[in-house]
Structure formats: structure tokens, C-alpha cells
Specification:
- With 351 residues, the protein is of the alpha/beta class.
- The chain contains 13 helices and 11 strands.
- The strands form 3 sheets. Strands 1, 2, 4, 5, 6 and 8 form a 6-stranded parallel sheet that branches. It has a 3-stranded parallel sheet with strand order 9-10-11.
- The longest helix has 21 residues.
- It is globular and about 50 Å long.
- Bound molecules: zinc ion (ZN).
- Zinc ion binds next to loops.
Length: 351
């Protein structure tokens, strides 16, 4: 199988670089390091054509999912809302870092602000980065910070990470559980959806609870997108999507990025890197059968979660395509999952 170019719905490498590599994190991404799951040399080797680069502002209360796991699953208490100053400081640091990566890469990595720029980057073999915030905790009720970040290239927003904020309510880290937990978007959350539509900023539904999901579905005029979530039918984590949600996404012409985290893949929600590559294929096939080949893409979650051993880092992605082909999937379907579905949706959302 020839090397396939692919686009990825989610990575957390910016936070990982800031947390783990004190000295010259941007340079370490560009020249390569063995501590993150994605860096420039390995992205090139794998065929990574681009992806959403998340700025996620962490809570000071760190938790280790493993500590909460028992035979029956887990339930992690969610940290309280993050003060806006903390969220803004962390977000701006990560945007700075992505811009430093762009500069240091000397044209190899390009922050893309429109579909035309994405296409141009792709034709020049540049890696395209979409600036994303995972949780809108840094955005004030007057949307001033939205304007500031938009100017710098922000084109995708997750309204909430699992922690609640002034816009809505996220799903907690629980297993097993339905995503139907908590109320819908706040009034200001609904306004933010309309403002994102006006600005052509993509709205990401991953991490949002079910009522919030239906609020976005009823307000937004853009295709519905979940950048890094799986099928709840196969793995009953609230981070995954029910069949009704999947059908709504497909009906809007949107897309679901399949997440490689063992806890969102395995039927038993286990937190273990021993979860086989096969489980990724199960979700891909289930999604293709349930909502069609136009609705399925990748949303790895590199550097946000532990990876299955067989994938390990970005260089493991071609194994997924090879396995899909071996299982009889048409090359034209694999190309859609790898790249074309994301491109179509980005054309229709960020424009
Ligand atoms: Zn996430």
C-alpha cells in the first residue's frame, strides 16, 4: 500500500511540549524528540498532512484516571470551572508555541486560516495546522478574547472540555455511563454557537454532554463535527456518541474523528495500552455501516492519552490504513477516512 496522506482531528502536543520539555519546546517538535507522540520528523514519516492542534488549559487539580479504576469502571470527580485568567494565560502560551513551531519549521508547518490556505499547504507538501481550543474557558462573555484568538488563527472551538464553563456542561470521566448528563448550553453558550457560525469557526462537539449536543444541532447552520469521539454502542463511555447523535452528524454532512484512546475504544473501557489495533477497526467499520463512509475520519488524541501499543505514536497510523485494506475496505473509502472527509468538512465550516 502506498503512503497515504492523512488529516487528524485532534492532538494535544502543544500542552505536552510545554509540560515536558522545558528547554526550547518548539525546537524539540521541529527537530524531533522521543517524548511526545507526534513531532515533525515522525509526522513526515507517517504521512501526516495536518490536523487540529489543541490548546487545552489544564486545571491545577491533576488526576490520574488509573487511580479511579475498579472492575466496575471508574468515576472521576470533575475539577471546578477554571478561572478565565488561568485559561487565557495557558491558551496564549500554546498559541505562541504553535507560532514558534511554524517559524522554526521554515515553511514545513503552516497555520491555516481558510480552506484555500489548507489546499495551498497541501499542494506544497506543508503540514497544515488548524488552531483549536479544547474548551472555551478562555473566552469572556463579551467574546473579546474570541476576536483576539480569531485574529491569530483560531478556527475551531470545543465549547467545553469535560469541565463545565459559562457556555455549557461537559461529560465527566465515568465508565460506563451515557452522555445524557446535565443540562444544555447556557444562553451565552447558544450565542457563542451563532457567533462561531458568523465567523466561520468550526464547533467541536467532542466532550459536550448530550443536551448541549442537541442545542448545537438545533442552532448551528454548519455541519456537525465531533473531532475525537467514538461509537457509544461499542464502548459505553459518555465521551462517545450514541447512534442518534451519529445520525444527526451524518445528516448534517459532518464528520466523526475516531479516537485512539483505549478507554474510548474498548468495550470494557479498560485503560490499557494492550487494547489491540483491531478495536480501532471495529469502530471505523461500525461508523461506516451506521452512518456511511462520508462521515468517518481520524481524531487520534495524540499526546492527550495513552496509545494502544500497536499504534504507539503518529508513525503507527499507516498500520490502520493497511489493516483496513487487508479487511477488504475499498481504497476510495480509506482515502475518505484518511483525508477527504476532513477536507470536505473544513471547506464547509472554516471556508
Ligand atoms: Zn479531548
Amino acid at each position: 500500500m502506498k503512503k497515504l496522506a492523512f488529516f487528524d482531528g485532534h492532538n494535544d502536543v502543544l500542552l505536552r511540549l510545554l509540560n515536558e520539555i522545558e528547554d526550547q519546546p518548539a525546537n524539540s517538535f521541529v527537530t524531533g524528540n522521543r517524548r511526545t507522540q507526534i513531532d515533525l520528523p515522525r509526522a513526515r514519516e507517517a504521512g501526516f498532512a495536518g490536523g487540529f492542534f489543541a490548546a487545552f488549559a489544564p486545571s491545577p487539580e491533576r488526576f490520574d484516571l488509573e487511580e479511579y479504576q475498579s472492575e466496575d469502571g471508574y468515576s472521576v470527580p470533575m475539577p471546578p470551572p477554571l478561572p478565565i485568567e488561568k485559561a487565557q494565560k495557558a491558551t496564549l502560551e500554546m498559541f505562541d508555541l504553535l507560532e514558534d513551531i511554524e517559524t522554526l519549521s521554515a515553511g514545513q508547518v503552516r497555520v491555516c486560516k481558510s480552506f484555500a490556505e489548507l489546499q495551498d499547504a497541501h499542494s506544497k507538501n506543508q503540514i497544515a495546522a488548524i488552531m483549536h481550543i479544547e474548551g472555551a474557558d478562555c473566552i469572556d462573555a463579551k467574546f473579546k478574547m474570541l476576536d483576539t484568538l480569531y485574529q491569530r488563527g483560531l478556527r475551531s472551538i470545543g465549547l467545553v472540555w469535560s469541565r463545565n464553563n459559562i457556555f455549557g456542561y461537559g461529560v465527566p470521566f465515568q465508565f460506563p455511563a451515557p452522555p445524557d448528563i446535565g443540562p444544555g448550553l447556557t444562553e451565552i453558550g447558544k450565542e457563542l454557537v451563532s457567533e462561531c457560525n458568523r465567523k466561520k469557526v468550526l464547533i467541536d462537539l467532542s466532550h459536550l454532554n448530550q443536551q448541549g449536543f442537541w442545542d448545537v444541532a438545533s442552532i448551528s447552520n454548519a455541519p456537525l463535527v465531533a473531532t475525537h469521539s467514538n461509537a457509544h454502542r461499542l464502548c459505553p463511555s459518555p465521551r462517545n456518541l450514541t447512534d442518534d447523535q451519529l445520525r444527526a452528524i451524518a445528516g448534517s454532512g459532518g464528520v466523526v474523528g475516531v479516537n485512539f484512546a483505549p478507554c474510548f475504544l474498548a468495550q470494557n473501557g479498560i485503560l490499557s495500552s494492550s487494547v489491540p489495533l483491531e478495536t480501532v477497526l471495529l469502530h471505523v467499520n461500525y461508523l461506516v455501516q451506521t452512518v456511511g463512509e462520508d462521515c468517518v475520519a481520524l481524531g487520534s488524541d495524540f499526546d492527550g492519552v495513552m496509545m494502544p501499543e500497536e499504534i504507539r505514536d503518529v508513525t503507527g497510523v499507516p498500520k490502520i490504513f493497511a489493516a483496513l485494506e487487508k479487511h477488504g475496505m475499498k481504497p476510495s473509502t480509506i482515502e475518505k477516512i484518511a483525508l477527504k472527509n476532513w477536507m470536505r468538512v473544513l471547506r464547509q465550516t472554516i471556508g
